[in-house]
Every structure is written in C-alpha cells, then in structure tokens.
Automatic annotation (TrEMBL):
Span of domain ABC transporter: 15-242
Keyword field contains Cell inner membrane: no
Signal peptide span: none
GO molecular function: ATP binding
InterPro entries per the UniProt record, alphabetical: AAA+_ATPase, ABC_transporter-like_ATP-bd, ABC_transporter-like_CS, ABC_transporter_ATP-bind, P-loop_NTPase
Organism: Micromonospora parastrephiae
Identification of the protein by name: ABC transporter ATP-binding protein
Keywords assigned: ATP-binding, Nucleotide-binding, Transport
Alphabetized Gene3D superfamilies for the sequence: P-loop containing nucleotide triphosphate hydrolases (3.40.50.300)
Length: 259
C-alpha cells in the first residue's frame, strides 16, 4: 500500500481524505484502525466526527495533522498548510505566562517583537482573556486554560483547525460557553474545522455535518447535514432531535458488535 500527502486539486476542499487506511502493529497483532475512510471538509465547514471509544477518531485526526502516516490512501490539506491542533489537555508551557504561551507560534513564525505584542493582545481579547496575560496556567481554571490553547492555535493563522475532544474535560456550563466562543471565532475567521467528540449533543450543537465512524475497523457509516439555524443552544429541541437520531445509529452500531 502507498501513502502520500498532497494538496487537494480542488479549491473547494479544505481537508481531503481518500481511501485512508491505518493499520497498527504487524502480523497476528495487527489492528485495522481505519478502513477506507474518504471525507472532504469544505472551506468554512464545521465537521464533527463521532463514534464509540476506540473507533479511530484520534487516529484519523492525527493522520490529518501529520503526526502519523496512513498505511494507505491520500490526505490533502488546502494550501499544504500545517493545521491548528487542539487536544483535551491544553498542553501549555507551565513556566510561561499566558502571553508568552500564545506568543510561541508567533516567535516560531519569526514575527517582529512589536507585531507579536499586538497579535497576542488581540488574540487574548478574542478568547476573552484580555486581563489574564500575566497569569501562569496553574492560576487559571480548566476552561480558561483551553481558551489560552485556542488563542495559541489561532496564532498559527491556519485556515484549518483540528480538535480532538477539546472540551471533554470541562464541566457542562464551561463547555457551553466555549461552544459559543468557538462558533463565533469559526464564523468570524471562516475556519474549516474537523472536531472529534463522543458527545453527540456537542456534535449536533456545533456541526454543519456529522460523520459517524464505526468500530474495528473504523469506517464512515453515516453522514448527516445539520441545518439548524445558528447560533444554537445545546438544550434546544432541534439539537436534541438530531442527537437522538445519531445516538440511535450509534447504538445500532455498538449492538452489531455485541458489546
Ligand atoms: P478513539 O480516538 O476513537 O477513541 P483511537 O484512534 O485512539 O480511537 O484508537 C483506535 C484503535 O486503534 C483502538 O483499537 C486503539 O487501541 C488502536 N490504537 C490507537 N493508537 C495505537 C497505537 N499507537 N498502537 C497500537 N494501537 C493503537
Ligand atoms: Mg480519541
């Protein structure tokens, strides 16, 4: 099997996966984590990938991020750019202030000091942390730390954001607020987002399109457009109805494995 990373031919695709396969290990111990996954994310589209634990969601995201290589198939990113990444753990540098954390990607990009200062201030305002630049991560709540991580990711200025259960460790109320913020930033910056979650309500709250992945091997078994007007509320009947439908599909899938 061959694997290549290419720029999508079409300008109407931000992320393109074609027949992507991932095998971990060899021989009798080999695990087929992903099997022929094809998926296009359009520019400005918000796609949520849902599925049971262990179905290959993180594997798929890591492949798109270039952290690992597919065993087969092609993955393309618009402009060949490095995507922004966010995980459940914010992975901030504990010894650096909030400002300095957000400044890291700007330094790496070689921006001059004055411009970095300006950008950091603007990014911290964007995530509503304008007053917290001098704090260190341990002085902040979990939700605030994820805002810092989001600001640092936005500092990369990439059009594609990959998020792996970024709000999974937060309480429901904090998560709710961060959903609003992410939706606002996504629409202002016209980002393309591939967002992994096992929380179907969160997916229905955020997504333009929900993709459901089966387990062992991970295959796309269902895809649904979510045309609920924005801004949405996670406790609205429309979101609940979509979540119920996806949960039903998920339950059928888990039942198929006799778990
Ligand atoms: P999810 O994020 O949906 O919970 P993962 O992508 O983490 O699922 O894992 C998919 C499958 O691949 C699981 O069966 C997991 O045990 C296996 N897997 C993930 N990473 C590795 C690895 N580095 N080596 C071997 N197996 C792995
Ligand atoms: Mg995972």
């Amino acid at each position: 099997m061959t694997s290549t990373t290419t720029t999508p031919q079409s300008t109407t695709t931000a992320v393109a996966l074609a027949g992507v396969t991932k095998v971990y290990g060899r021989g009798a111990n080999a695990v087929l984590a992903l099997d022929g996954v094809s998926l296009d994310v359009a520019p400005g589209e918000f796609v949520c990938l849902v599925g049971a634990s262990g179905c290959g969601k993180s594997t798929l995201l890591n492949l798109v991020a270039g952290l690992d290589r597919p065993s087969g198939g092609q993955i393309g990113l618009a402009g060949g750019a490095n995507p922004g990444l966010m995980f459940q753990e914010p992975a901030l540098f504990p010894w650096l202030t909030v400002e300095a954390n957000v400044e890291v990607p700007l330094k790496l990009r070689g921006l001059p000091r004055a411009e970095r200062r300006e950008r950091v201030a603007e990014l911290l305002r964007t995530v509503h942390l304008g007053e917290f630049g001098r704090k260190r991560p341990h002085e902040l709540s979990g939700g605030m730390r994820q805002r810092v991580a989001l600001a640092r990711t936005l500092a990369l200025d990439t059009p594609v954001l990959l998020m792996d259960e970024p709000f999974g460790a937060l309480d429901a109320m904090t998560r709710d607020i961060l959903h609003d913020e992410l939706e606002r930033i996504w629409s202002e910056r016209k980002l393309s987002v591939l967002f992994v979650t096992h929380n179907v309500r969160e997916a229905a709250r955020l997504a333009d399109r929900i993709i459901l992945l089966s387990s062992r091997p991970g295959r796309i078994i269902y895809s649904a457009e979510v045309d609920i007007p924005r801004p949405r509320r996670i406790d609205s009947p429309e979101v609940a109805a979509i979540a119920a439908e996806v949960t039903e599909r998920l339950r059928t899938e888990v039942g198929r494995h006799g778990q």
